[in-house]
Structures are given as C-alpha cells and as structure tokens.
C-alpha cells in the first residue's frame, strides 16, 4: 500500500515519512493515546475525518492535527505519488481499525 521510513521511534512517540502511491486511501482508524500531526511534503494529500465529516486538503508545506480518538484516514486522491511526514505522540501507539 505505501512505503515508509521511520525517522524516530520511542515508547511515547513515532515519526515517519510515508509515501502514498496514486489513488491510495489508508483504512479508517483512530488512536486511543496519540495525536497525529500530518505535514505534506510532496504532492497532495487529504485527511478525511468522521463525526462530523470533513476533508482537509494539504499541499506541500501545509499541516493539520488530528486529536486522539478522532476517526480518520489519509488519502492520495491524485494520479501522482504523495509524501508526508507523520508525527505521532505523546503516548503509546495503537491503530484501531474502524472501516465500515
């Protein structure tokens, strides 16, 4: 689905550079302790949020934060690859799948 490079990983934080191929969407999920901070590096990414439904479109240099417990997914809805920096913390990492 995607390529990723772990930049930093500790007990309470994780930093990765993630490359999404064209037209790829991650599964819907949430985290019980960590906050996600998305920084678009290349291409365009979309961060989809549920309840209330929202789409945040990011271009290189733009960022957004998704708070703990918020169901979301990241997507590349273009025909070109996209790359983003994901900073997660502070807390124990988990990935609770919530696909419908």
Low-confidence runs of at least 5 consecutive residues: none
Helix content: under 10%
Structural class: mainly beta
- Mean pLDDT comes to 94
CATH-defined architecture: Sandwich
Q: In total, how many domains does the architecture comprise?
A: 1
Note down, in words, how this protein is organized:
With 100 residues, this protein is mainly beta. It has one domain: Jelly Rolls (Sandwich), CATH 2.60.120.10. Helix content is 0%, strand content 56%. The strands form three sheets. It has a five-stranded antiparallel beta sheet with strand order 1-2-10-5-8, with no helix packed on it. Strands 3-9-6-7 form a four-stranded antiparallel beta sheet, with no helix packed on it. A two-stranded antiparallel ribbon has the order 4-11. Strand 6 (45-49) and strand 7 form a beta hairpin.
Summarize the helices and strands and which ones pair or pack.
Blueprint: E1 3-9, E2 13-20, E3 24-25, E4 29-30, E5 35-42, E6 45-49, E7 54-58, E8 63-66, E9 72-76, E10 82-89, E11 96-97
Antiparallel strand pairs: 1-2, 2-10, 3-9, 4-11, 5-8, 5-10, 6-7, 6-9
Short structural description:
This protein has about 100 residues and is mostly beta strands. It has strands at about 5-10, 15-20, 25, 30, 35-40, 45-50, 55-60, 65, 70-75, 80-90, 95.
């Amino acid at each position: 689905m995607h390529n990723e490079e772990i930049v930093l990983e500790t007990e309470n934080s994780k930093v990765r550079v993630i490359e999404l191929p064209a037209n790829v969407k991650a599964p819907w999920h949430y985290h019980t302790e960590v906050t996600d901070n998305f920084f678009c590096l290349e291409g365009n990414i979309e961060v989809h949020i549920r309840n209330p439904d929202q789409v945040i479109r990011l271009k290189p240099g733009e960022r957004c934060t998704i708070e703990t417990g918020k169901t979301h997914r990241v997507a590349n809805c273009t025909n070109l690859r996209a790359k983003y920096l994901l900073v997660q913390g502070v807390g124990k990492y988990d990935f609770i799948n919530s696909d419908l």
